[in-house]
């Protein structure tokens, strides 16, 4: 039996492969992180029905694993483990095709938007991202669309196979007891940090200016000017503006409520009044309806940058902080009910570790702004409201809570239960995936390059 501690590594590997790490594999496809001048020799090394594994797939992830190892030697079987996981992903895709498992276009679009926001944040802005690759954001999304769609299908299949798997405290204890004492991992300093964010309010003057601009454009369209031409010229939605404002087809509840309600009140060709949403102000034209889906084009105008007022956000956070410190509300409840950052808010305000999904963050990998904020804080302290700029450039205020600060230590059951429970769950899910693989591998055609025939999981050819 493989040592239980290997599950931590295997779980991380599966995450990279199934979620593109969530971003590292996508970065690899875009070319980020590849040494200048390095060319990966390509070719098919495995076929699973009509799915293929390319040598570049294997080499890219191996390069990522080597970089992650920071000079330490990789396990001798790492290449086989990567190939096995790639083959599992392709089998998931092959079976998804025969089982008619699909993902909605809106989900693919949402994931592409999320990744582009992340890339833009890492490189500095959307403009810098476009300059770096010499491509518009829309083209970058198109380049990644098929890969992202495959990953979402793989996730959906994996969820069907192992989504209902759970572990009990007894199973976590048994998992921990199987780890050899000399193999227990050593954890560096880790912290749990929470935040509550409130966006700055756009001042009335800026809102009125945006509305006036759209009302002027509306009058021009009603007078006979082309909606598409004006959208290309004035819309501040970089994705649809270049397409004359065209957004494509969406189903119910796939767009923000204000937009959907205004669009569905229109007849085909009809023009809405100015509509406000969280993104700014819209002028909407309904193009057509097909069953429960509808297509529209819009012109988006955002209130002028720098026209926001953080005072109201600061007052709200000061109130919340006072209640939290008085124990009249927990930080988690306050974050869930009030934070404008829905992702951390849903997690009780706690920031998430992208590596393993936990709330424990290695001190040396913290955002510098948070690191220097909590450096002198005591556990349980909540900061006064502080200025903050969101990843997409919005002005905001936030309060930060230091929930825990765990010094360096060797793993133990009491302090590291959450990590151990996650690892035990990963082991159980991996077992379910392995069983599914063994059960279904015979139902598809599998061919592997003889060079990789030593990878035991793939030795049997149908």
From TrEMBL:
GO MF term set: peptidyl-prolyl cis-trans isomerase activity
Keywords of this entry: Isomerase, Rotamase, Signal
Protein name: Peptidylprolyl isomerase
Coiled coil: none
Matches recorded under InterPro entries: OMP_Chaperone_SurA, PPIase_dom_sf, PPIase_PpiC, PPIase_PpiC_CS, Trigger_fact/SurA_dom_sf
Chain ranges of the PpiC domain: 188-288, 291-401
EC number: 5.2.1.8
The keyword Signal appears for this protein: yes
Family matches, as Pfam families: Rotamase
Residues that span the membrane, as ranges: none
């Amino acid at each position: 039996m493989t040592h239980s501690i290997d599950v931590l590594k295997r779980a991380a590997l599966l995450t990279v492969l199934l979620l593109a790490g969530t971003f590292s594999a996508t970065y690899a496809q875009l070319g980020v992180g590849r040494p200048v001048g390095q060319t990966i020799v390509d070719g098919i090394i495995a076929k699973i029905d009509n799915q293929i594994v390319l040598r570049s797939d294997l080499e890219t992830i191996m390069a990522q694993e080597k970089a992650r190892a920071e000079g330490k030697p990789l396990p001798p079987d790492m290449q086989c483990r990567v190939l096995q996981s790639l083959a599992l992903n392709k089998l998931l895709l092959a079976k998804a095709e025969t089982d008619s498992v699909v993902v909605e276009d809106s989900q693919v679009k949402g994931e592409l938007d999320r990744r582009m926001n992340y890339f833009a944040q890492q490189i500095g802005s959307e403009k810098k991202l476009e300059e770096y690759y010499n491509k518009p954001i829309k083209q970058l999304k198109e380049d990644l669309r098929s890969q992202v769609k495959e990953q979402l299908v793989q996730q959906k299949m994996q969820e069907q196979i192992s989504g209902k798997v759970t572990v009990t405290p007894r199973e976590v204890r048994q998992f921990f007891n199987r780890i050899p004492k000399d193999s227990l991992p050593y954890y560096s300093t880790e912290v749990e940090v929470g935040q509550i964010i409130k966006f700055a309010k756009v001042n009335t003057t800026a809102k009125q200016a945006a509305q006036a601009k759209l009302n002027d454009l509306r009058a021009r369209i009603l007078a006979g000017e082309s909606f598409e031409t004006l959208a290309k010229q004035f819309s501040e939605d970089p994705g649809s503006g270049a397409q004359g404002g065209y957004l494509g087809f969406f189903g119910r509840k796939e767009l923000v409520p204000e937009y959907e309600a205004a669009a569905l009140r229109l007849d085909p060709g009809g023009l809405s009044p100015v509509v406000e949403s969280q993104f700014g102000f819209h002028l909407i034209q309904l193009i057509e309806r097909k069953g429960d889906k509808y297509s529209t084009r819009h012109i988006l105008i955002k209130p002028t940058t720098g026209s926001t007022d953080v005072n109201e956000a600061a007052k709200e956070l000061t109130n919340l902080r006072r209640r939290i410190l008085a124990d009249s509300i927990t930080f988690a409840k306050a974050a869930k009910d009030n934070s404008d950052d829905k992702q951390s808010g849903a997690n009780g305000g706690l920031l998430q570790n992208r590596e393993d999904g936990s709330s424990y963050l290695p001190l040396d990998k913290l955002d510098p702004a948070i690191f220097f904020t909590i450096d002198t804080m005591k556990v349980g302290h909540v900061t006064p409201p502080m200025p903050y700029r969101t990843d997409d450039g919005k002005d905001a205020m936030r309060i930060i809570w230091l929930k825990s600060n765990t010094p360096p230590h060797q793993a133990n059951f009491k302090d590291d239960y959450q990590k151990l429970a996650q690892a035990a769950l990963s082991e159980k899910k991996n077992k379910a995936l392995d069983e599914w693989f063994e059960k279904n591998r015979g139902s598809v055609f599998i061919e592997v390059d003889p060079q990789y025939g030593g990878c035991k999981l793939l030795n049997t050819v149908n």
